[in-house]
Design brief:
Chain B: It is found in: Cell membrane. The complex is a heterodimer of chains A (about 300) and B (about 260). With about 300 residues, chain A is an all-alpha fold. Helix content of chain A is about 80%, strand content about 0%. Chain A has one domain: MetI-like fold. Chain B contains 11 helices and 11 strands. In chain B, the strands form 3 sheets. Chain B has a 6-stranded mixed β-sheet, sandwiched between helices. Classes of the chains: A mainly alpha (about 300), B alpha/beta (about 260). At the A-B interface, α9 and α10 of A face α2, β7 and α4 of B.
Chain lengths: ~300, ~260
């Protein structure tokens, strides 16, 4: 198992390097000249060719592409993503706190989604085809198909404006979490609940559950065994849910004025703030790799057959 | 007993009835889909939710059909033991096989871990499994189908049930493992003196192990008699057809093998 952990972790390194290269290269395919962006952001009235050349030199843009990439990568490893073109402050001072806020929202939501969908998934699989199963599936289908923006607006209108129970926006108190977490949970739990339910169901008719029953094992123990086997699908799905939600909270964040990655990236994209965009893409892509590796490691711990493959 | 699919209303097994006495082996023979496995699972009350059954299942004077689910669970394993068709799929793939033995034996007898290991090791030795303690720590995918099948037999030896139901225990195995498993099943009967229901579509295996035979087709019992009667002079056309099909295959096989006469399967 230790050997597997080391190999699997080392395998993530080349992937991260490729991702970083693509991130860097994609930004340079953009037709906009970064030097011009910087000058505009500084409010320079007359942008001359000489001025652009001067700024390019200051930014180090006149050096060869690969050298700039190597430089950028080396500083990224120290969490130094350069300075923002617009505010002039280090990118990490903008991105770090925003990432932390989004991560808080994401983790709380993922835990809520996990609890709800695992609980309901198991329950519905064990009661397959009965009233409980059919009604939970119906409600989840209904809730999942509601647009999250509309749901968020309705909830603000009812719980914050009409009843005045919860804050409309911001993350000043823990009550501020309730609405955005609920919206995210409602939009995603329906999908993940189905995955858990169907992977539990596929275990229900496996020979080993029949044999365990035939040997007189109690249902509680059989359910635990089924859960352990069906968790392998769930673990990969939930590990990937973290980066997926991390990248898609933009809508919910902007409705609830959550000071997270969503607001930061939208502003950076509109302002052509390349260093921030680059850092955002890199962090998000890296989180996919990290969580994917994590899910492989957890699965290997759950499933002895996977450990042999390396 | 009668078994039907409650969602479609289709009857899978019509009023079928048979009995097995202590120490005897009853074979249920028939094509796939004839209702053999469903009957076996009905005896253990383990058919899926949509399968419903009616009728009596008497074991030593106790009607299993009347038992509460908890009492039925206590009967399974302890009094009724199942040997599955595919050993590779009968054990939890993410736990060592030993954990299944420990759970089962602890459930029925409350033995300690060391007691269970020593009893299982002895039983596994008697079905000719080498190094039983190491085998118990292995995962199912690290063992062969024949080994897992013999492990199920070993568990049955330790459990000492009243009735063993072997549902096509050899059809997933190669000929050599098939031979070994059959030997162990015959030895198991001799050792425990239990009754056995042996489900198969392989008549030569049936001839070796069974005392009585039930022939099933499309959920109905066509014929019921002792092995000698059925093999010497069957009355029913379908059974004759089954026997002839087998003989034809054997003839064909021995012709191709150059007239070897000792082939009898």
């Amino acid at each position: 198992m230790n050997g597997y952990i080391i190999k699997r972790t080392l395998l993530a390194a080349p992937l991260l390097i490729i991702i970083s290269f693509l991130t860097f290269a994609l930004n340079h395919l953009s037709p906009l000249n970064p030097a011009e962006v910087v000058l505009r952001a500084q409010g320079v009235p007359q942008i001359t060719q000489a001025l652009i050349a001067e700024t390019e030199a200051a930014l180090g843009m006149d050096r060869p592409f690969l050298i700039r990439y190597a430089d950028w990568l080396a500083s990224c490893l120290r969490l130094d993503f350069g300075d923002s073109y617009i505010t002039g402050t280090p990118v990490w001072s903008l991105l770090g706190p925003a990432l932390l806020n989004t991560l808080k929202l994401t983790m709380v939501s993922v835990i809520a989604i996990l609890a709800l969908s695992v609980g309901l998934g198991i329950l519905c699989a064990l009661k397959e085809g009965r009233l409980l199963d059919r009604s939970v599936r119906g409600v989840s289908f209904f809730l999942t198909s509601m647009p999250s923006a509309w749901l968020a607006a309705m909830m603000i209108w009812y719980f914050s404006v009409k009843l005045d129970w919860l804050p409309t926006s911001g993350m000043d108190s823990s009550a501020g979490y309730i609405l955005p977490v609920t919206v995210l949970t409602v939009s995603y739990a329906g999908i993940y609940f189905r995955i858990i339910r169907s992977s539990m169901l596929s275990q229900l008719y496996e020979d080993y559950t029949l044999y365990a029953r035939a040997c007189g094992l109690p249902e509680r123990k059989i359910t635990l065994r089924m859960l352990k086997n069906s968790m392998q699908v769930a673990v990969s799905v939930f590990c990937m849910a973290v980066p997926v939600i991390l990248g898609s909270t933009v809508v919910v964040e902007s409705i609830f004025a959550w000071p997270g990655l969503g607001a930061l990236t939208v502003n950076s994209i509109l302002g052509r703030d390349f260093p921030v965009i680059q850092a955002y893409v890199l962090v998000l892509a890296a989180s996919f790799v990290v969580f994917n590796t994590l899910s492989d490691l957890i699965n290997a711990a759950l499933n002895p057959r996977l450990r042999k493959e390396f | 007993m009668r078994i039907w699919d409650h969602t479609t209303g289709k009857v899978v097994v019509y009023n079928s009835s048979f009995q097995v006495s202590q120490g005897r082996c009853l074979a249920i023979v028939g094509e796939s889909g004839s209702g053999k496995s469903v009957t076996c699972r009905a005896i253990m009350r383990l058919n899926t939710f949509k399968m419903r059954q009616s009728g009596n299942i008497r074991l030593n004077g106790v009607d299993l059909a009347e038992l509460s689910e908890a009492d039925m669970r206590r009967h399974r394993g302890r009094h009724l033991c199942l040997i599955m068709q595919n050993g590779m799929r009968a054990f939890d793939p993410s736990s060592p096989v030993g954990s299944h033995f420990r759970d089962t034996l602890w459930q029925h007898y409350g033995w300690s871990r060391s007691q269970i290991t020593s009893r299982m090791a002895k039983a596994m030795g008697s079905v000719r499994l080498q190094d039983p303690v190491a085998l118990m720590n292995k995962y199912p995918h690290q063992l062969s189908g024949g080994m897992l099948q013999r492990m199920m037999i070993a568990l049955a030896i330790v459990l000492e049930p009243t009735l063993i139901i072997a549902d096509e225990p050899t059809s997933a195995l190669d000929t050599l493992s098939q031979y070994e498993v059959m030997e162990q099943l015959i030895a198991l009967r001799a050792e425990t003196g239990c009754a056995m229901i042996f489900v198969s579509h392989d008549l030569s295996l049936v001839q070796r192990i069974a005392d009585d035979i039930v022939v099933m087709r499309d959920g109905e019992i066509l014929e019921h008699g002792t092995t000698a009667d059925i093999f010497s002079g069957t009355r029913h056309e379908y059974t004759r057809h089954l026997l002839e099909a087998k003989q034809r295959l054997n003839r064909n096989f021995s012709n191709r093998m150059g007239g070897l006469q000792h082939v009898d399967r």
